[in-house]
Amino acid sequence: MEKAENWQSKYCLQSKQHPQQTTIALCSFMEQQNFVDVAICCEKRVLHVHKVVLAANSALFKEELDKNSSVDHVVITGCEFSVVKSLVEFMYCGSTIVSDEHLKYLVAAARTLQMKALENLTLGCTLPADMIVIPKPQFLSKKPKYPAPVSSNPAPVSSSNLYIPNKDNRKLRI
Predict the structure, then answer these.
(1) Helices 81-93 and 18-31, axial angle in degrees (round to 10)
(2) Structural domain boundaries, residue 79
(3) Quick one: pLDDT at residue 146?
(4) Which of 21, 68, 98, 119 is deepest in the core (most CB within 10 A)?
(5) Domain BTB: where (predicted)?
(6) 11 falls within a domain
(7) Would you say 74 and 90 are in contact if contact means Cβ atoms under 8 Å apart?
(8) Cα–Cα–Cα angle for 27, 28, 29, nearest 5°?
(9) C-alpha count within 13 angstroms, C-beta hemisphere, residue 87
């Protein structure tokens, strides 16, 4: 005879507002520069953002950040800072406003960064973006600020390499 399993009720808790609330929170974090962990540099200007947002929206960012999680600077060339700012705004908000002049650069950059959501939105557009090539960004990381490793063969301790304050030369002034 098999034992009867102990069936307990389980509940599925869902919030229809969760995606919108998360998006609003992330946008707020970026605007207030809270928890940002990477700097995007373009035209001598810097935009601080979250790696997780970059990786969630761009296959190229995900691939590069998977390879090296210590990346703290991304240098983008081949387009204006306003285009990069529009790309980031799209990543955070799902929408952006861009001028006619910059649209072809936005599409070209989206292709370089492998941003499928933005690429899919512009599939029907007839843009000369195919002729524009945005170079792959540079992913940079600083060297860790750790102390130099201690040698496995430390120098022998002797009176010549120890600091001993000279007590005889001390004078007390009152």
Answers:
(1) 150
(2) 18-142
(3) 53
(4) 98
(5) 36-100
(6) no
(7) no
(8) 90
(9) 30
> Residues for the chain: how many in total?
174
How many Å apart are CA 106 and CA 174, to the nearest integer? 73
Residue 166 lies in a domain: no
> Could you tell me if residue 73 is inside a domain?
yes
User: Tens-of-pLDDT digits for all 174 residues of the chain?
Assistant: 555 566 788 999 999 999 999 989 998 998 899 999 999 999 999 999 999 999 999 999 999 999 999 999 999 999 999 999 999 999 998 889 999 889 989 999 999 999 998 888 877 666 565 678 899 999 999 755 555 555 555 445 444 444 344 444 444 444
Burial of 143 from C-beta contacts in 10 A (0-12 / 13-18 / 19+): exposed
**Pick from 41, 89, 39, 114: nearest CA to 98:** 89
pTM for the full model?
0.72
The pLDDT of residue 160 is: 46
In a domain, 155, yes or no: no
**Which residue matches tokens 């799902």?**
94
Domains held by the chain: number: 1
The residue among 102, 92, 96, 100 whose CA lies nearest residue 121 is: 96
